[in-house]
Design a protein that fits this description.
The structure holds 2 protein chains of 2 kinds.
Chain A (H helix, E strand, L loop, with lengths): L2 E12 L2 E12 L3 E5 L6 H9 L8 E4 L2 E2 L5 H6 L2 E4 L11 H7 L8 H17 L1 H5 L10 H13 L5 E5 L7 H16 L4 E4 L3 H7 L2 E6 L2 E7 H6 L1 H8 L18
Parallel strand pairs in A: 3-8, 3-9, 6-7, 7-8
Antiparallel strand pairs in A: 1-2, 1-4, 4-5, 9-10
Chain B lengths: L1 H31 L6 H19 L3 H28 L4 H23 L14 E4 L2 E4 H23 L1 H11 L1 H6 L4 H26 L6 H15 L5 H21 L5 H15 L14
Antiparallel strand pairs in B: 1-2
Helix pairs in contact in B: 1-5, 1-8, 1-9, 1-10, 2-3, 2-4, 2-8, 2-9, 3-4, 3-8, 5-6, 5-8, 6-8, 9-10, 9-11, 10-11
The chains are: A alpha/beta, B mainly alpha.
Bound molecules: adenosine-5'-triphosphate and magnesium ion.
Pfam family, one (chain B): BPD_transp_2
Subcellular location (chain B): Cell membrane
Membrane topology (chain B): Multi-pass membrane protein
Chain lengths: ~260, ~290
């Protein structure tokens, strides 16, 4: 499979502080890569550099060989990169349906574009029954797990070439968390290319073709999910004695907004 | 009783005009999360422009609105693009407060240079005419002003509720990062939003100039009322702003008529404080604070 996304020696940070100190990563077309790493390692920062919320310092981000670094988030969206951020990203006072339609904002400037957005929204509603059931509910009234499903559905409206999913299961109760991984699994089965960030290392790696470990702003290890799960360093750092201690930590962002 | 009802009528008509002025303020607050201290000055600027067009060219004050509004739209968009946008990167919301205050002082200075500081009013032939309905006096200008305000508010609500631009604005207000990730260009929305807020000041200015006398300093008085209305309405809720403006109009008119005109301005702030003690989020700013 051809390479879709490549990060070469990428540095980035906020203000004066550098958070990524040279990240190298490649993602093949149709591959699901799970990026794991401790709190504050810079996982979200990697996704922000790819989606364009954050500028690259040194190094390059390439999509199908084309450098993205000077492009705005909108221009990257036009090239098929969609990010579902870690913090809640629905518009709470809009209805579920309007939130879904906002996923097609880039397309709906023309009459034919609007028609296409409606058509895709209807198709998504068949795949995600929640969208039809809670169509007129305000997004803010949904549970955290329901909101995450709507966010994932909305991200599909542009039929993205690359999905960036930032800890989609964080802060959710077990059933909703399973639903998220089911959705990710279904997307993978469809052949979507996904860069998935997870603290829930076991479930994340299980859903992925390959994993990478980010620590202190650098990729320390890459390998298949099975290799990483079997690696004693990973086991010590992220799986702990009891399985998944990290998953129990309170989510600092879930209370936002 | 007659006096009370007369005061309520006057209060509602005045409140309608304030609703228009404050809706621009609410829009700007919603989009930029910036308290726009220049809104009062923009209204006074519009009043002067309208007055000049009326005096020099004989254009009816109401018809000056479509001329002044685009000019203020451009001014507002330019203020956001040139002065406020560069600040946002460094996340300097206090600085933007200062910048909008500086804009207000700048407008005041220019107006003082051009027009001197004498008070003036816009006096079309019908300025003092009124109808008497069932024994109650209704000023023609005030009624027309109130109707114009409602029409502009309606147009604003349609724009926000029904258009693609409106969706971009509401999305930006509710979750700026998520909006950016969906392809909404936040800077452009902010500039258009500020421009639109400033353009509502054009309609408000023409009306204000016919109902009240004004000079370049009048904006201090205006901005304090506008801020109170916006806070009372729940910071960022358009519906709340309209209700708060009407309430303010009625309360001051009632106190002015039944107690003493001396207390009429002050009474409103008493109401504001009382409401905020019970509902710190304002009348309508509940869970979805700032949702427009
Ligand atoms: N907006 C910001 N401004 C300043 N510093 C930030 C900002 N966002 C993140 N940081 C810092 O950058 C570092 C990496 O943050 P990042 O969010 O990428 O980590 P993460 O691996 O996603 O962590 P988590 O698992 O907690 O989500 C942290 O030290 C964090 O404090
Ligand atoms: Mg993160």
């Amino acid at each position: 499979m051809p390479v879709l996304l490549e990060l070469r020696g990428v540095t980035a940070g906020y203000g004066a502080g550098e958070v990524l100190h040279g990240v190298d990563l490649t993602l093949d077309q149709g591959e699901v890569l799970c990026l794991i790493g401790p709190n504050g390692a810079g996982k979200s920062t990697v996704l922000r550099v790819v989606s364009g919320l954050l500028r690259t310092g040194r190094g390059r981000v390439l999509l199908r060989g084309e450098p993205l670094d000077r492009l705005s988030p909108r221009e990257r969206l036009l090239r098929g990169i969609v990010q579902v951020p870690q913090e809640r990203s629905l518009f709470p006072a809009m209805t579920v349906w309007d939130n879904l339609l906002m996923g097609g904002y880039l397309l709906d400037g023309t009459r034919s574009g609007r028609r296409e957005v409606r058509r895709r929204a209807d198709a998504l509603a068949e795949r995600f029954p929640l969208l039809a059931e809670r169509r007129r509910a305000s997004a803010g009234s949904l549970s955290g797990g329901e909101q995450k499903q709507v966010e994932l559905a909305r991200a599909l409206l542009l039929e993205p070439a690359l999905m960036l999913l930032d800890e989609p299961s964080i802060g959710l109760e077990p059933r909703a968390r399973r639903a998220v991984f089911d959705t990710v699994g279904a997307l993978a089965a469809d052949g979507r290319t996904i860069l998935l960030v997870e603290q829930n290392a076991r479930s994340g790696l299980a859903a992925a073709d390959r994993g990478a470990v980010l620590e202190s702003g650098r990729v320390r290890l890459t390998g298949s999910g099975a290799e990483l799960l079997a690696d004693p360093r990973v086991a010590r750092l992220y799986l702990g004695a009891g399985g998944e201690p990290q998953a129990q930590q309170p989510d600092p962002h879930s209370r936002e907004r | 009783m007659h006096e009370t009802i007369q005061a309520i009528i006057l209060g509602l008509l005045t409140g309608g005009v304030y609703a228009l002025m404050a809706s621009g303020q609410t829009l700007i607050f919603g989009v930029l999360k910036v308290v726009n201290l220049a809104q009062g000055a923009l209204v006074i600027l519009a009043a002067y422009l309208s007055s000049s067009l009326f005096v020099s060219f004989g254009i009816d004050p109401f018809l000056t609105v479509p001329i002044v509004a685009p000019a203020l739209f451009l001014l507002g968009a330019a203020v956001q693009w040139c002065l406020l946008r560069p600040l946002h990167r460094s996340d300097a919301s206090q600085l933007s407060l200062l910048v909008t205050f500086a804009v207000a002082l700048g407008i005041e200075g220019v107006l003082t240079l051009v027009y001197k500081s004498d008070y003036r009013t816009i006096q079309p032939s019908y300025a003092n005419r009124s109808w008497t309905v069932a024994g109650y006096r209704i000023g023609e200008v005030r009624l027309a002003a109130c109707l114009l305000s409602l029409a502009v508010l309606g147009a604003l609500a349609l724009l926000l509720g029904r258009t693609r631009f409106g969706r971009a604005v509401r999305a930006t207000v509710q979750n700026p990062t998520a909006a950016r990730l969906l392809g909404v260009e936040g800077d452009r929305v902010a500039a258009l939003g500020y421009g639109l807020g400033a353009a509502t000041a054009a309609a408000a200015g023409a009306v204000y100039g016919m109902v009240y006398s004004f000079n370049p300093n009048s904006h201090y008085d205006l901005i304090s009322r506008l801020l109170s209305i916006v806070v009372l309405g729940g910071l960022g809720s358009l519906g709340g702003t309209v209700v708060a403006a009407l309430a303010m109009g009625v309360v001051s008119a009632l106190v002015g008529a039944l107690i003493s005109p001396v207390w009429s301005d002050f009474s409103f702030f008493v109401v504001l404080l009382a409401v905020l003690l019970v509902r710190p989020q304002g009348l309508f700013g509940a869970r979805l604070r700032g949702a427009l």
